[in-house]
Each structure stands twice: as structure tokens, then as C-alpha cells.
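Bumping with the actual sequence this time:
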Amino acid sequence: MLLYNYGKLLHQQKIFEKAIELYKESFSIESKKNLSMYNIGNIYFHNKNFENAISAFKKAIEFDPENFLAYNNLALSYKNIGKFNDALKFHKIAIEKNKNYIDGHVNYSHQLLMLEKFNT
């Protein structure tokens, strides 16, 4: 857990490359695998590296299929590379995982409007 916490500290200080290294190391040996990958995805997303963000969010979901935030961010990553149907699919899963997640409902609605799928 020490590696994860140190990675989180560097992440907060915007020392992204080193934070990713520590999260990856944490992922390989510590129990917070899903959080490490989720945070790596967030760093890649922040830096507009959406392909790597997608990969990291998928790994986070593999280790915690209930992580609605990872589904939401996965959807946003797909949206940013123009894969709107994939984005819609993962936004829907995010709100199925947590029906009270307001941002998820907003993102899903925006995606429906964007795709003109009003009756979905």
C-alpha cells in the first residue's frame, strides 16, 4: 500500500510520469490493483492520451467490475476518440452500477442527444 499512497501523492502534485511508475509497481504487488489502474487511467485521460486511458480503465474494471467511475471514465475516453456508440454503452453500464450517480446520468443523456437516440 505504500507504493500506491506514494503514487497518489505524486499524482496530486502533478508529477504524472513518476506517479504512473509507482501505480504500475503497486499494481504488480499490492492489493489496490483496481485503484492503481483507475488512477493511471485518470492521468492518461488528463493528458489526453485516450488510448492508454482506455486500456487502464479496462484493467481497473477487470479487477473491480462494480467500479462505476471507471466505466464512466472509460466512456468519456471513447467519446474523446470519436467512438460514440462505445461511449454510450459504457455510460449506460456506469449508471446501472450506481443508479444514484448523477454525473453518469448527465453524461449518458448528453451521449444520447449527441447520437440522436432519444428513445433509448
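The C-alpha cells above came from a reply further down the thread. The chain has one domain: 2-115.
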